[in-house]
Amino acid sequence: LTYGVLTYGVLLDEKVIMFEDFLNFLSARKSSHTVKAYKTDLKSFLLWCSTNNIRPPKAIAYDINRYLTGLGLSRRTLARKRASLNSFYRFLKSSKQVNDNPITEVEGFKIPRRKPDYLSLDEIWQLRHATRDLALFEFLLSSGVRESEVCGLNWHQVDLQNRVARVIGKGDKEREVLFSETSAKLLSELPKSVAAVFTDKREKRLAVHIVYYRIHKLSKFIGRNVYPHLLRHTFATHLVDKGVSLVEVQQLLGHESVSTTALYTHP
User: Pick the catalytic residue: 82, 146, 214, 238?
Assistant: First the structure.
């Protein structure tokens, strides 16, 4: 038998570790988009193991280094693939399928830290007057939520009077976010005939790529790239600029580590 992704699982040391088990392990810790990417990464690695006659439980750091460096991909992509395998071997170790995690001996791929980008107050003013999706723009900007979180938002999770919303973040973790008075007024004007807060003309829930497209269209008005995550960075930067602590911003953004929040804010 060769090692690879089977119809119902992954064959490891004469035991079948159900693919679903690993995905559940990931789902409690990662977003749905990350789970999808990790699943693709793992399939690629298992196929490589099968082609090179390597048993995944017996793979050592040398094997994994050879696999990663042979892909010819960017450092950022390789770093993610390394993280995918790290999660996989951590799962195998926790379920006692392997004794050691070989990824700990695989050198990481250092990625140059990107300078956090954000919108100035003047740019925000311009975009507010340019967008046709002001309710969406204002909610993203004043709450700092992710695209996926705004797409999944339902009316029963929104308190317009107190300007508080409960969103479902990474790993299905729920948290409360605040939004502005302006945003509350714009939300109150939206139709409420369906469960979803943000919908298209047919009252269908907005998908993540549609949210990205609608915000990205604003790029032409200020001559630089505008995207939903930029509004999240802007939210964090302006709060810190006004004296809000990193810990408080961390809670609003739903980050596990305050060091991640620090990366979101402009110095």
Answer: 146
Report d(CA 13, CA 20) in Å as an integer.
18
Claim: this prediction has a pTM higher than 0.85: no
Catalytic residue among 81, 214, 232, 233: 232
Q: Which residues does residue 177 pair with via DSSP β-bridges, in sequence order? A: 165
Say whether 55 is catalytic.
no
Q: Which residues of 209-247 are buried (b: 16+ CB within 10 A; e: fewer)?
A: ebbeebbeebeeebeeebbbebbbbbbbbbbbeeeeebe
Respond yes or no: is residue 264 known to be catalytic. yes
Backbone angles phi, psi at 217, to 5 degrees: -60, -20
Question: Which is catalytic among the residues 170, 214, 233, 238?
Answer: 170
Percentages (nearest 5) of helix, strand, coil residues in the chain: 55, 10, 35
Find out whether 139 and 179 touch, Cβ atoms under 8 Å. yes
Residue range 23-60, pLDDT digits in tens: 788 877 777 778 888 888 988 998 898 899 988 888 99
Is 146 known to be catalytic?
yes
242 is catalytic: no
Task: Give the pairing type, strands 164-168 and 174-178.
Answer: antiparallel
